[in-house]
């Protein structure tokens, strides 16, 4: 006999207590993504406090689904995603499983350079925890004050330190998860080497809640650098920016911990909306600007000397037109602030289109030229706001409405046109239409269009094998067949 | 109607030419593993020259299998594996697909720090290719003169530089493969970031030829260090060795590129069988010895100064009883030679048992004590020859027959007893019974016994989904259900 939605909610409430299994009332905080792109309607929002409770929730939902109720589960972390991967649709038949109550630090192994933490730990808290022990957890991104590690893992988050430390997957030694049978797999591990079968950890990381729920992870730690310093550099072409990147990688090696690029128009937008922010170099004087971060494992003096050595070589090679070195941590922080305010300046300018793309870094200049050219053919007055993690070949190639146009109208009518123009160029360079944000519900049609069909077929086979009833996040990531 | 074995061989010969699809005659080079543990009987050994030819071979075998012939495919690289993952069984019904003719370098992108190469490229050739361009491909292991990158990827090979650069999977940006439908997936990519669905690359890497055939890969390159230097250090306990590791990681950070440990008995065996090799420090004077490699991104002088700084601090902390620093590259090479001769000395001493285990590095001392204790209970006179990649928590905890005993008899009668004693202790420390060698046909029973059953269930589901007819390497990795 079919379990009804009401019966399932009652069951979830009896498992977790009514406070932690809510249905009805104002659930906006879980039903709407933070960018307010879409508000769904959840059957319930549940907040388990342990892995066993997560498993019990999955088992209850699975039993209901097997009985005929068309229920599904949307795992949610800090709800800071950008692609609608963690919020429910409007059906009223999805159970949001929030991991935010699972915040325990289960182990901290200083000698092994690892820590085991639960999925609901806020990223910034983990950074601080490592720092208190004189160590570094290098994952760093704009949402770090509210995103949680479970979400970082489910989406394989990137951020600003990828050029040195890799993406979230590269920082994870092992995971604990609940699969679609409601079974717990304890794959937590402080091991650096373990060749005993398929790497389920890497399969789960980046699967956006469609194959299981990550409940805990063992994470890599690094020694804290002795000193970190920054420079703000003007270049007259992106070709020079890419040559500078190669030079920096050669000279600074693993000391190169950040390499962000911003085209002039992106900084002009910051100047317009945040006039109090002082540019280290007049934004009118360069086609693009680089925020370069160097971390030294020895001393402040050496950090400065090494950075200055690089800049000298870069000036000599004709790669730079101007440059400013941060004289202290405060100045370095201000440089990062400008970089991070581009997103806010874009928001202040009005609704716009975000494109989180990647190509091999060597192709960046040619890609940008071609993408602007193609975009201009179809949307001649649209404004490209281009910036991003050049060191990883990852650009936020965003598009703002023409000067004076209505932003909402522009977004509504031009989104598809812009995406197709840009993503076609991305594809022609062997690039990705989603470098670090993921696919979620927002970019499923892009996946259908741009993903290699053989890869898509294998992805579908894996989903069908591990989640045959499509219990986990059925409307995210994989396009409908 | 069933395609006969003879018909399949004819078909393969017409696809590749008789020279490249051999059946009958002496095929020992492909049928026997290099350690001569087992010699199988292949239906055919085929050597495709291109990805299209690999796909055609898979399609032919698939059609034969679908018609009722119980054929299967064993992908083979350099045939240097240690666990019988790349050689056929005795059935005469397996087609060995050797990748060794696919040796093209398809692209070398210096600016993107990547190269795209075919599966049959010999590892050492790739190291040399990178070096000629002033770059580093850091994968390094004993078999590098004959192993090929396809096999390194299929087994996620480790080696001596893992402490700094990670395992093979960490050095791979993308792969091209042929799946069990005979389809080609071109997932070659110079991208550092690409969040568009399940990470098929990481699923394939380490799957030991059971999910598909890797035909090419895009690999990460690094700047060459400016200088590399080594020290040979004596410690009186493994506890001190692990404390030294932590100190080295703190002081040298990413400059620590090697951290090998060898217990006294391992070096005594080298002294016995290779009396011409000169130990940097009398092996009688320490319980264990560390070969520490440091790479500097600036200069030879700084390399020496940083290494000496570390040793000073380690002596002060009472971690070292003696130490020798290589005065030149030749001395450094001699230190590595001793380390690498342990395996040969073991072979010279006679047949023995190999255990390639890992635990968190912080647990190494307690693990070694406990494992020796448990082994002594069941095999009181067996000799432990313990050495390995301590920086990765990976030990080759090998066992030699008692002094004077018949080695073959010892191996035949005591293998299971030794394995169980040691692997049970490994499991109690959350460790792995196969850190870097893989599972193959040799350790399937260990996988059945020690792998978490939930993980094993998910692995089986994935295998069933991607290779429903069990076409690829059916007797390797996954235990029979």
From TrEMBL, chains A, B:
Its cofactor is FAD. InterPro entries: FAD-bd_oxidored_4_C (IPR004113), FAD-bd_PCMH (IPR016166), FAD-bd_PCMH-like_sf (IPR036318), FAD-bd_PCMH_sub1 (IPR016167), FAD-bd_PCMH_sub2 (IPR016169), FAD-linked_Oxase-like_C (IPR016164), FAD-oxidored/transferase_4 (IPR051264), Oxid_FAD_bind_N (IPR006094). Keywords: FAD, Flavoprotein. This is FAD-binding oxidoreductase. Residues 38-224 form the FAD-binding PCMH-type domain. Transmembrane segments: none annotated. GO terms for molecular function: catalytic activity; FAD binding. The keyword Flavoprotein applies. Belongs to the FAD-binding oxidoreductase/transferase type 4 family. The keyword Disulfide bond does not apply. One of its GO terms (biological process) is respiratory electron transport chain.
């Amino acid at each position: 006999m079919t379990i009804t939605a009401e019966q399932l909610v009652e069951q979830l409430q009896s498992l977790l207590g009514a406070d932690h299994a809510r249905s009805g009332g104002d659930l906006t905080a879980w039903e709407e993504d933070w960018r307010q792109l879409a508000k769904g309607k959840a059957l319930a929002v549940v907040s388990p406090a342990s892995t066993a409770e997560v498993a019990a929730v999955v088992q209850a939902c699975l039993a209901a689904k097997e009985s005929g109720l068309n229920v599904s589960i949307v795992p949610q972390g800090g709800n800071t995603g950008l692609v609608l991967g963690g919020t429910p649709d409007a059906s009223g038949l999805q159970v949001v499983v929030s991991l935010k109550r699972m915040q325990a630090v289960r182990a901290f192994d200083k000698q092994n350079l690892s820590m085991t933490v639960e999925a609901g730990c806020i990223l910034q808290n983990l950074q601080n925890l490592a720092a208190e022990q004189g160590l570094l957890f290098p994952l760093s991104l704009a949402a770090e004050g509210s995103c949680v590690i479970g979400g970082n893992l489910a989406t394989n988050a990137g951020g600003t330190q990828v050029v040195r430390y890799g993406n979230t997957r590269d920082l994870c030694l092992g995971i604990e998860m609940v699969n679609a049978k409601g079974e717990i797999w304890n794959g937590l591990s402080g091991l650096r080497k373990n060749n005993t079968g398929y790497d389920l950890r890497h399969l789960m990381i980046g699967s956006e809640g469609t194959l299981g729920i990550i409940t805990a992870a063992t994470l890599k730690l690094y020694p804290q650098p002795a000193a970190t310093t920054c420079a703000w550099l003007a270049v007259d072409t992106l070709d020079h920016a890419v040559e500078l990147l190669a030079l920096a990688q050669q000279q600074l090696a693993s000391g190169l911990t950040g390499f962000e690029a911003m085209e002039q128009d992106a900084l002009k937008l910051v100047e317009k909306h945040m006039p109090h922010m002082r540019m280290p170099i007049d934004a009118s004087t360069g086609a693009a600007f680089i925020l370069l971060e160097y971390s030294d494992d020895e001393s402040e003096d050496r950090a400065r000397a090494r950075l200055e050595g690089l800049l000298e070589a870069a000036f000599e090679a004709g790669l730079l037109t101007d440059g400013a070195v941060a004289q202290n941590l405060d100045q370095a922080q201000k440089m990062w602030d400008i970089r991070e305010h581009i997103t806010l300046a874009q928001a202040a300018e009005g609704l716009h289109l975000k494109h989180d793309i990647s190509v091999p870094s060597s192709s960046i200049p040619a890609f940008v030229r071609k993408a602007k050219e193609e975009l201009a053919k179809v949307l001649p007055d649209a404004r490209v706001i281009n910036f991003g993690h050049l060191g990883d070949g990852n650009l936020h190639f965003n598009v703002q409405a023409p000067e004076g146009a209505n932003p909402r109208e522009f977004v509504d009518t031009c989104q598809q046109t812009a995406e197709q123009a840009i993503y076609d160029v991305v594809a022609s360079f062997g690039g990705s239409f989603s470098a670090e944000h993921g696919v979620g519900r927002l970019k499923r049609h892009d996946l259908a269009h741009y993903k290699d069909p053989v890869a898509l077929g294998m992805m579908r086979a894996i989903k069908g094998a591990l989640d045959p009833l499509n219990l986990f996040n059925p409307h995210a990531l994989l396009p409908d067949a």
